[in-house]
Design a protein that fits this description.
The complex is a heterodimer of chains A (404) and B (343).
Chain A (H helix, E strand, L loop, with lengths): L5 H15 L1 H4 L17 H24 L7 H17 L4 H23 L4 H20 L3 H4 L5 E2 L18 E2 L2 E2 L3 E6 L2 E6 H22 L1 H11 L1 H6 L5 H25 L2 E2 L6 H14 L6 H16 L4 H7 L5 H11 L7 H15 L3 H17 L22
Antiparallel strand pairs in A: 1-6, 2-3, 4-5
Chain B lengths: L1 H31 L6 H20 L1 E10 L5 E7 H6 L1 H9 L1 H23 L9 H23 L10 H4 L1 E3 H5 L7 E3 H23 L1 H11 L1 H6 L4 H23 L9 H16 L4 H18 L2 H6 L3 H16 L14
Antiparallel strand pairs in B: 1-2, 3-4
Helix pairs in contact in B: 1-9, 1-12, 1-13, 1-14, 2-5, 2-6, 2-12, 2-13, 5-12, 9-10, 9-12, 10-12, 13-14, 13-16, 14-16
The chains are: A mainly alpha (404), B mainly alpha (343).
Chain lengths: 404, 343
C-alpha cells in the first residue's frame, strides 16, 4: 500500500494509529489522582510532540542518512516562524499560505547555506552551519529589527493590513475556519481527554512528513545518501559527484525545519529570534541522537522524550515531592527530597545532561537501540540463539563472501 | 590614528580570552585527538574559582565593637572577616581586595584535578569513537557542569571586582605622544592581556624547551612510534589535558572583573572559540593564538560607529563572516597542518 512493502505499511499504520490516539494514550491517570502530574495529554505539549517530531525527522534525513552534523538547523525553524507570522500580518489568520511559503522560503535559505557549507565536511561543515545560524540569529536581533521586531518578537498588531480578513473570520490562527486553539473535552469517569484541532492538524502533517521520510529511507536516493555516510571517498572514486545528493538532503531537511517553525507559529502566533539560537540547533541534535540517529522512529521518540521531560520534570517542585514521600518518617523524607531536588523543577536540565551522557556512552544507537537490545534479550530467552540480525540503519544485506 | 590604536587595544582583552581558550582546545585536540565541547565549561568553572575565593576570603564572624555605638548608645555588632582578624585590618583588607588574582592559587589545583578526572573518567573511553560522539558526550558534560554551577551559585551574574589598585583606567595616549585623554584604557584589561601573553609564552616554552614538552610534541606528530619507543605517552597526554584545563581556568579567573561570571558564560565563549580554532587551523597552536587575537581585534573594529554606519550589523556577524570566508578559501585555516581532520 502507498508504494510500501507489507512490513512498512504495517509500521506506518501503527504510527498513524499511535499519533491519532495520542490524546487518549498520554492521559493514563485520572484527573484527581496524584499521578495526574505525569499526564501529557494537554494540547500545548501534544502540539510540541508533533512539531518537534517533524523537526527531528527532517534533521535525521540529513544527519542520520548522510552523517553531516549540522549545528545550524534552528535558523530554518526561525525563518519558518517569521514567514508565517508575516503572512498573518499581511493576509490574515489562515495558516495555509503561510505554511506553504514557509517551506518555500526555508528551502531557498537551505539551498544557499547548503551550497556554501557543503563544500566542506566533518567538523568544518558543523562550524560553517553554526556560523550561518549564529549570523542569522544576531542579525535578527539587531539590524533586521524592521522585519523581525527584534527582542520583542514578531506578532500581529491591530493596524496590520490583513487583506484577506473577512468580517467573521476568527481572530486567531485557523485553517478555513477550523480554529487551532479550539478543542473538545471528553470526560470519561475521571479521565479527561482533550481533542485539540491544532494537535490534529500538526499530527496529520507529521504523519505525512513521516511517510515522506519513510519513502526517502527506502528509495535509491536514500541508499545513495547512506553510501555517502559509509564512505564518501570511495563514492567519489567511482566517478560519482556526491554533492547534489547531499545538497538535496540538506534542502529537504531545511524544508522540514521550516515547516516545523511555521507550525510553531500556527499554534501560537508569535515568532522570536531565540528560536534561531544555537542552543535550539543543539536541542534537535540531542533529540535525534537520544532517540537513535539513522532510524525511522528514533528522532520522533527522542523529540517526544525531551519535550515530555522538559514539561513534566520542570513542573515537579518541592511541594509535589513532599506529597509523594509523605509516608516516610520526617527525617528520611527531607533527606530523600534533598537528594532529588537538584534534578527536578528548575534543575531538570541536569537530568537531561546526565541522561544524554549515559545514552551517548552506553547506547550509541539511542533509545531505539535500547529497545532492540531489550527485545533481543527476551527473544533469546524464548528460543536460544536464533539468527536475529537487527539493523537500525536499514543497510542492504551483505553479499555472501565467495571464499568463505 | 588614535581611533585605530584604541580599537586595537579594545580588541586585545577579548582576543586574549579567545586565544587562551582556543590554545587549550587545540592542545587537547592535538594531543588526544578529542574535540572537547566542555572546554567553555572549564573556562566558566575557572571564573567561579574567583567567585569561590572571594567568598572564602569574605567569610566573617560577628564581633562586638566597643568603640562604635549605634544611635541608642549600645555597642555595635560588626562583621569581621577572619582574614582581617588574623592579619590585621590593613593586610587583611588588601588580601580581600586582591581576591581575583588570588583565585589563581585556587584555580590551578582545582582545574588540574578536574582535567585529570575528566580525562581518566570519561574522555579516555572516547578515543576510538567517532568525532561526533566525542562532541556529543562533552556537550552533555558541559550541560551537567553548567547546571551544577547554577545549582550552587544561581543564575544571575556575580560581580567580582578587580583590586582597587588595578581597577582604574590610565591614559595610554600620553605614553605614545598623543594628546591626553584621547586613548583611555582600563588598567585591568592591560593586565589581562599581559597575563595572557605570559601564559601563552609559558605553554610554548614548556612544549619547546623541556624534555617533557619534546616527548609530547613527538607524540602529537606520531603517537604510535613514541609508544613503541617505550614511553608511556598516555600518561603525558593526561597531564597535557590537565594543563589545557588549567589554561582555560586561568583565562576564566582573570576574566571575571571584565565580565561578571554567570553559569552560561562558557557556552557563549565556546562557540566563538571553536570558530577561532577552525580559522586558525585545527591542531595548530600558533594558529589558534594568532586567530584569537585577530578575531578579537576585528570584532572591536567592526563595532566602531564609522564602520557600522557603512555596513549596518557588521559588528554582530564579523567573526562568522571571516570564518566562512577563510574556510572556503583556505580549507585548513590560517596555519592548519596537512592531514588533520581532513575526513
Amino acid at each position: 500500500m502507498f508504494g510500501l512493502s507489507a512490513k512498512d505499511t504495517r509500521f506506518l499504520l501503527i504510527v498513524v494509529f499511535l499519533t491519532l490516539a495520542t490524546p487518549i494514550l498520554l492521559q493514563p491517570f485520572p484527573e484527581t489522582s496524584s499521578l495526574a502530574q505525569f499526564n501529557a495529554g494537554y494540547p500545548d505539549l501534544m502540539q510540541k510532540f508533533a512539531i518537534f517530531g517533524i523537526f527531528a525527522i527532517g534533521f535525521n534525513i540529513l544527519f542520520g542518512l548522510t552523517g553531516y552534523l549540522s549545528f545550524g538547523h534552528a535558523a530554518f525553524l526561525g525563518v519558518g516562524s517569521y514567514t508565517v507570522v508575516w503572512m498573518y500580518k499581511l493576509l490574515g489568520y489562515n495558516v495555509l499560505p503561510g505554511l506553504v511559503l514557509a517551506v518555500i522560503i526555508s528551502a531557498l535559505f537551505a539551498l544557499l547555506i547548503g551550497f556554501i557549507s557543503l563544500r566542506r565536511s566533518g567538523i568544518y561543515f558543523s562550524i560553517l552551519t553554526l556560523a550561518f545560524a549564529q549570523m542569522s540569529y544576531n542579525l535578527a536581533y539587531s539590524v533586521l529589527t524592521p522585519i523581525t521586531n527584534g527582542e520583542t518578537g514578531l506578532q500581529v498588531y491591530s493596524n496590520d493590513p490583513q487583506i484577506l480578513m473577512g468580517e467573521n473570520s476568527p481572530t486567531s490562527p485557523h485553517l478555513f475556519g477550523l480554529v487551532m486553539r479550539d478543542s473538545v473535552q471528553v470526560d470519561v469517569g475521571g479521565w479527561l481527554f482533550t481533542f485539540n484541532i491544532g494537535y490534529y492538524f500538526c499530527a496529520i502533517i507529521a504523519i505525512l512528513a513521516f511517510y515522506i521520510s519513510l519513502r526517502i529511507f527506502r528509495s535509491p536516493f536514500g541508499m545513495m545518501l547512506r553510501a555517502i555516510k559509509t564512505n564518501q571517498t570511495r563514492m567519489n572514486y567511482t566517478g560519482l559527484n556526491s554533492r547534489p545528493y547531499t545538497l538535496a538532503a540538506f534542502v529537504i531537511s531545511g524544508m522540514y525545519a521550516g515547516l516545523a517553525g511555521g507550525l510553531l507559529a500556527s499554534m501560537d502566533p508569535l515568532a522570536g529570534a531565540e528560536r534561531m539560537q544555537w542552543t535550539a540547533s543543539g536541542e534537535v541534535v540531542l533529540m535525534t541522537i537520544l532517540g537513535g540517529a539513522g532510524t525511522l522512529m528514533g528522532p520522533v521518540l527522542g523529540a517526544g522524550f525531551i519535550k515530555y521531560c522538559e514539561n513534566i520534570f520542570s513542573k515537579i517542585n518541592d511541594g509535589v515531592l513532599h506529597g509523594w514521600f509523605a509516608f516516610m518518617p520526617d527525617g528520611l523524607e527531607d533527606f530523600v527530597i534533598a537528594l532529588i531536588h537538584p534534578f527536578v523543577g528548575k534543575g531538570w536540565h541536569l537530568t537531561l545532561g546526565i541522561l544524554f551522557m549515559l545514552v551517548v556512552i552506553f547506547l550509541p544507537g539511542g533509545l531505539v537501540e535500547g529497545g532492540q537490545r531489550l527485545a533481543r534479550l527476551f527473544r533469546r530467552k524464548r528460543k536460544a540463539g536464533g539468527p536475529s540480525r537487527k539493523d537500525p540503519e536499514h543497510r542492504p544485506n551483505p553479499e555472501p563472501h565467495v571464499a568463505e | 590614528m588614535e581611533a585605530i590604536i584604541l580599537q586595537i587595544l579594545n580588541g586585545l582583552d577579548k582576543g586574549s580570552a579567545y586565544a587562551l581558550i582556543a590554545l587549550g582546545l587545540t592542545l587537547i585536540f592535538g594531543t588526544l585527538g578529542v574535540v572537547n565541547f566542555a572546554h567553555g565549561a572549564l573556562f566558566m568553572i575557572g571564573a567561579f574559582c574567583a567567585v569561590i575565593m572571594q567568598r572564602l576570603l569574605g567569610l566573617s564572624f560577628e564581633m562586638v565593637d566597643e568603640t562604635k555605638t549605634d544611635f541608642l548608645g549600645n555597642p555595635l555588632k560588626v562583621q569581621v572577616p577572619y582574614v582581617e582578624s588574623w592579619f590585621g585590618p590593613e593586610l587583611g583588607g588588601a588580601i580581600i581586595n586582591w581576591s581575583v588574582p588570588l583565585g589563581i592559587a585556587l584555580a590551578i589545583p582545582v582545574m588540574i584535578v578536574l582535567g585529570f578526572v575528566m580525562e581518566r573518567g570519561l574522555i579516555k573511553h572516547f578515543y576510538k569513537r567517532p568525532h561526533a560522539d566525542q562532541i556529543l558526550v562533552t556537550f552533555g558534560l558541559a550541560i551537567v557542569l553548567q547546571e551544577i554551577i547554577k545549582y550552587f551559585f544561581g543564575a544571575n551574574p556575580i560581580q567580582t571586582g578587580a583590586p582597587d589598585m588595578l581597577s582604574g583606567s590610565f591614559d595610554f595616549g600620553t605614553m605614545l605622544g598623543f594628546d591626553p585623554n584621547v586613548i583611555i584604557y582600563p588598567l585591568w584589561r592591560l593586565v589581562y592581556f599581559l597575563f595572557a601573553l605570559f601564559i601563552i609564552a609559558g605553554v610554548f616554552a614548556f612544549l619547546q624547551f623541556t624534555t617533557f614538552g619534546m616527548v609530547v610534541r613527538a607524540g602529537m606528530a606520531d603517537r604510535e612510534t613514541v609508544g613503541l619507543l617505550g614511553i608511556d605517552i598516555d600518561r603525558r597526554f593526561t597531564i597535557m589535558f590537565g594543563l589545557a584545563a588549567a589554561v582555560a581556568g586561568l583565562a576564566g579567573v582573570m576574566y571575571t572583573p571584565i565580565l561578571a561570571p554567570n553559569y552560561h558564560m562558557g557556552m557563549d565563549f565556546l562557540v566563538l572559540s571553536f570558530v577561532v580554532v577552525v580559522v586558525g587551523g585545527m591542531g595548530s597552536l600558533p594558529g589558534a593564538v594568532a586567530a584569537g587575537f585577530l578575531l578579537g581585534i576585528l570584532q572591536s573594529f567592526a563595532s566602531m560607529n564609522e564602520i557600522k554606519s557603512i555596513i549596518p550589523g557588521i559588528d554582530q556577524v564579523i567573526i562568522y563572516l571571516v570564518a566562512i570566508v577563510i574556510l572556503l578559501t583556505r580549507p585548513r585555516g590560517l596555519m592548519g597542518r596537512k592531514g588533520v581532520m581532513e575526513d
